[in-house]
Input
Amino acid sequence: KLCYEHSSTTAEELRLCIEKNQQEVEDQESLVDEFGMTPFHVLFSSAEPRRELLKVLLDKLPYYVLLGWKDANGKLAMDYLVTNW
Output
């Protein structure tokens, strides 16, 4: 949810939320929304993605798995990154 509200979310808020919900974070499917998007998909599909949020995601989430996850459109998070960054 915080990634959807990235324009008003601070890196510290995101970090604290991930740490508070660490047990859920370990279940990778709990990190996927109804469109099959991971936090990386959401951040990378933003018109103005924020690097400080990306740093938190890379530090706190199992990115090596989530970056390989395809959303409902068959796109990887990296597909959005290339298009929008």
Summary: The mean pLDDT is 84. Residues 18 and 25 are 7 Å apart (CA to CA).
